[in-house]
Structures are given as C-alpha cells and as structure tokens.
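User: Hey, quick favor. My workstation is busy. Could you predict this chain's structure for me?
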Amino acid sequence: MIGSLTTLFLVCQILLGLLLLPFPSSSLPLCTDLRAPLVPNKTLTFCAYNGSVCCDSSKDLQLQKQFQAMNISDEGCASLMKSILCAVETNKDACDPFSAELFKVKSGLRPVPVLCNSTDSGNSSLSKQTTSSFCSNVWEECQNVFISNSPFAPSLQGRGGVSINSSASQLIELWQSESVFCDAFGGSSDNGSICFDGDEVSLENTETIVPPDGLCLEKISNGSYINMVAHPDSSNRAFFSSQAGKIWLGSVPEQDSGGTLELDESDPFVDLTDLVLFDPSTGMMGMAFHPNFAHNGRFFASYNCDKVKSPTCSGRCSCNSDVNCDPSKIGASSGVQPCQYHAVVAEFTANGTASDKASAKPSEVRRIFTMGLPFTSNHGGQILFGPADGYLYFMMGDGGSKGDPYNFAQNKKSLLGKIMRLDIDNIPSGEEIDELGLWGNYSVPQDNPYSEDKELEPEIWALGLRNPWRCSFDSERPEYFLCGDVGQDQYEEVDIITKGGNYGWRVYEGPLLFTPEQTPGGNTSANSINPIFPILGYNHSDVNKQIGSAAITGGYYYRSMTDPCTYGSYLYGDLYAGYIWAAAESPEGSGNFNSSSIPFSCASNSPIPCGTVPGSSLPALGYIYSFAEDNRKDIFILTSNGVFRAVRPSRCNYTCSKEIVTAASPSPPPTSNYANQLTVADKELLLFLSSLLVLLGYIL
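Assistant: No problem, here it is.
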C-alpha cells in the first residue's frame, strides 16, 4: 500500500509538472461539419480568406447574395456584418478554417460565431490581442440599423432577447441592452477557446519549442507482440496480442520498480489461431475492447482468414462490378486467388466477473465485418473505439499490388484504402443488412460523410490511404486522430484524420505526385480532388540509404508525467528501428507540426538488458511493430525483440529541466486498480491537494 508521504510526493510532483507544462489547446482547424478546411479550386471573391478555408467559390457566391439581401444601408455596420457572415452561413458553410471552434460545434451549432467580448484575447496563441470588444463594436454600429433576415434574430431569445414580432430587424428591438446581447453572443479566447474579432482567426508562435534531449527506454519483456491495449478498467493491466492470433492479459510494473511485465504466455486470455491466417503480411492485426467492457465483456478482433482453409471464412469480394473490378482478370498472386483471403472483424465475449474478466469464449458472438481481398498485402487491420463518440474505427489498406492498380483508394464505392466508422451497438436485422448492402452486423452512424456526399459508401469516414499502420486518438484532445500511412516508393506520412478527408493516395504519395505503373482501374486526376497533405513524414532515402526502403509506424501523443520534457510531443518511428521522431504542433492548435529525429537509448538499470545493435550504440529493438499507451499514459514500443517503455530521462543521463530527480524507491506489486491502493488517510490527503489545485487554478 502506498503511504501518505509517498502519495503526497507523487501528487506534488504531478502538480509541479502541471505548473511547468503548457495546457493543450483544442482549436484544431476544423469546419462546422468537422471536416478539415481545404484550399479552394477557385479564389474566393466575397470572403477574402487565404489558404485553406471551409467554403468553396459556389458557397462564397451564396454568401454574397445573402449579404446583398440584408439591405444594410450603414457602411460601418455592413462591414461588420460581412465579416460575420463570412464566418456564419446557416448551412454549415462557414468559411473560417477554425469555424468548428468559433461556432462551438461540440456544444451545439450556434447561429453566429463567438464574438470577442474582452479587451484582451486571454490566449497567447492568438496572433494579436483584441484591443476593444468586437461584440461591443457590433452593438454600437448596428443597434439602430435595419437588417433583413438578421442572424441575431430568432433562436437566442430564451437567453435574454425581448419578446418581439417577426418584423423586428434592429438589434435594439431584439435585445434589451448591449450587456444582454454580448452575454448571448460574446465570449473570450481563453482556456484553449477562440473567439471572432472580425478577421480570419490565425495563431502565432509564442514560444520556442525545444525537442526532448532524448527518449530513455527500459525493457520489461522479451515477448514479441503486435498490439497492446490498456484494460478499460483503468488498472495497471493491459492486453497484448500476437500476429498469430493469441491475446494475453498482463500487469504492467510501476515506474522505477525494477519489475517486468507479468504475463504468462502459456495461459492466453483467448486463442484464435485456428481462425487466423498467419504469414508475414497477414494475421491478427487489431483488437479493441468495448468502452463498457468491464460490464458487458464485449471485445473485438481484426484478422485475416483463408476461405480455402477455413469454412467460416466467406464474404463478398471487394473486387466487383460496383468498383469496376473483375476478379477473373486479376489472376493469382503467389498462388493465391483474388478474394481467397478475407479481412474480418469479429466480436467475442469474456468470462469472469465484471471486475476481473480473465478469459474469453473461443467462439465468436457475431461477425461484424467480412470482405474478400483482391491481393495478399496492404490490409491495414487496426480497430479503435473513438473516445468521444464510442464508434468503432476500422483502418483498411488499399488491398495490395504495387501502386493500387485498380485505384481502390480513390474509388468512393470501394472500402479499400479507407478508414471506416461503424456503430456496433445498434445491430440491424438480417433483412435490413441485406437491404442496405452492409458487409456484416453493424449499423452506420447518421453523421458519417455519406450524409453529405452520396457518392461515398456509408461506412467511409476518410479515404485516399495506402496502408494505415497504427493510428491513435490524443487522450487529451480526441479531435486529434493521427495515423501513420505506409508509403510505396518514396514517402512515409502521418495524417490528421478528419471527417470525409481525402489523403491523396494514389494521386499523391505523401506530398509527391505519384504515377502508377499500371492503371486497369483508371486514374483520378489531381485537379479533381482536394487532398489533405501529411502533417509529418520522411523520404525513404533519409532513413535507409543502403536499401532505399522504409515503413512508418504511427505512434501516440506523449501525455505522461514520467518525462515532462516529452509531454505534448507526438512520438512515431520507422519499422527498421533506426529512427524515432518527436513532433510538436507550432503554434499550438494550428495543425502545423515540426518534427525532430531524437536520440533514444536504454537505461543502464533496465529490468531486462536491452543489448545494442552491432556496430552501433542504438538499443537492439529489432523491428518496431507498434507504439502503445497504458492507463498511466506511459508510452510503450512493441518490437520484435520485446516490450520497451519510456522512462525518466535522467535514467539515460538525458537532460530535462522539468524532471524532479529523486532516489528511486521500490514499488509494491501491481494490483488490479490504482484507486484501491489508497488508504483513508491517502484519500483525505488527495482531497486536500485537490482543493489546493482549485486554488492554484485561480492563481493561474
């Protein structure tokens, strides 16, 4: 049991770290429909925004006509209303690239943006301070001006508007006073929020971002796993899986305890090897546990099967007439016929009590998804539950064969080269599944992109990916959904995945135009799409000059207090384990990133010796299969040589001014839940410290 003094020290260390670290902003550039802003094909003439925006020239013309219909005679008011209109449009067509934040989409779409109502922006990341209240300016200029179809009129009367007739068109008729008006429509830019001051929102760098001195690792297991998922019960336990099809439940040791991963490979949580086709390019590539797993025991496995070897491996072929593909014309690949291999997502159930589900039934509950694959590689396969919406995200590669010859990734009727978003909590009947043409037992969320783009298959959340390998949601900002996408010949990339985003493949490989060698499935022209280019990436020649090959492994935002100098960095690496990068957003909330290759080494007191690469000082990681995150937010690297964990930088003699260096003390054996380790005295102490945090909140 952790003693009170130890608890006090740990909490104070966390408290001090919080004081030293910047709080994350949530103002990722997003439109009101949660899509990413794009560069329009034609220059906007009415709303003079530069770069990426949330409307196109057609919507810009609509806004101009709407403005003209307002018949505003006062020049000063007209100028203000034009700026608001360019950010407002009631049909989800606001132009400002930060319109999702301006219109507070998460709490319900507003009719107008949040108008700055403060003499100070309150947010050091804004490019300038608001020297006067924009909301007050709007009131002063427009309170007595007639405005037809005023956006300030109908929907917010319950927040202080006066009772009026439908012909009212002056602010003074609609709202009792300036203070009431600005209480309804105003706000400030603080705590990561932004407001509208009449100009396009832009951010500026407020600090020099210094990459961490290095990443210190310790080895806690010799086991080779392809996936690790933290147990949903918030304990120190985690699930580990092999590509061959086994899942184990293990306990992760405390930091600085000198302990190793407690996992018995002779006693798996579940063994699915009889179902899984295992070879270098196939296997069980993903697992996910229902957010309510502790109570319902539902979990999911994503794997490949061979219909020749398994009678339960059957489904529709992804190469079909709907996508202009004929499997008879593809021919065999390495002796494998088209759609002999399948991609499967299946649901299983765990046994045991609600608090300790220690094993699973070997037979599946239902087949969520099954699809025949045209070729034998690029199958993706990761599955994740969205932390904000609870839906299942399924990452699917382009199906293989060099250069995606059938252009599946750009074909909106194909699910290859896509990220899918599925509802596995509302299962339709068999008749409905057949009628809707679904690929299994799931329903489609109503706000998937097909609701606005009828050309898309309903399951699609994003398109234009080659082989997404390891995606993650930032645990502090779930709108930051980052994916590594493995390149073909030249470029490896990291993308921020947004609703309906097209990430370019195979028109582009990363930011580079791509020319396929064969095009039996046709081509997509570069000027016919609005691609979202990578936020991060690297050329093959930059990391592997000897063989000219590379393969990205997407990572995680580092949110642990173990290494405060790495906090807020996105960590990712290359399969061949020669490089690990730390990327930081600059300025924060902008969607723009700077990346640095950082040194990494193994602590001399690692519980298991790491060894080194022959002829190098690098630790012998082998191949980097995946990054992972536990419930403490510590980051792990799963490799062919074992499981490695990021630890305090001082253990590798890396310098970090924010680290509190203390003599390491042995930690107790892990228990099922951290909260259970606290005595009554500990909890009383934590209550006191919580009050202290509240007090400090006022100081900050």
